Amino acid sequence: MTPLQIEMNKLTDMDWGWWPFLGLRPKKEAVMNTRLLLKMTALFGSLSGALGLFIIHLRNDDVSLIGAGLAVVSVYLGFFFGYRFTFARAWNARAAELNRQPNIDIC
């Protein structure tokens, strides 16, 4: 694993980064697959999209329904592909490394 992947995994190991969906976080040796990423996108993307629309509303910007829909879809796509090629890749590199090492019981 690269030093950047190690740092990224330190971030994904922190509970606050998964709030309020801590139950979605897989075990460290489990692969973060597309199915999990789609669940994460639905939940975190919805939360981010709602926050973005709220900020637009606070700024009193006029946004059409189509514009709001495009903004939310953009957040979903941005989250999915952004996470897929960064944090999920680092997570999966660690999972592969953990699964390669034999379990040694030191007792």
Describe the structure.
The chain has 107 residues and is an all-alpha fold. Helix content is 64%, strand content 0%. It contains four helices and no strands. It has helices spanning 3-12, 34-58, 65-84, 87-100. Helix 1 (3-12) packs across helix 4 and helix 2 packs across helix 3 (65-84). It is elongated and about 60 Å long. It starts with a helix and ends in a 7-residue tail after the last helix.
Helix and strand topology:
Elements: H1 3-12, H2 34-58, H3 65-84, H4 87-100
Helix pairs in contact: 1-4, 2-3
Total strand segments: 0
Instruction: Note the beta-strand portion.
Output: under 5%
What is the alpha-carbon Rg in Å? Answer: 17 Å
N-to-C series of helices and strands: HHHH
Largest sheet: none
Structural class: mainly alpha
Question: Any key phrases for this structure?
Answer:
mainly alpha, about 65% helix, about 110 residues, elongated
What is the gist of this entry?
By secondary structure, this protein is an all-alpha fold. It is built from 4 helices and no strands.
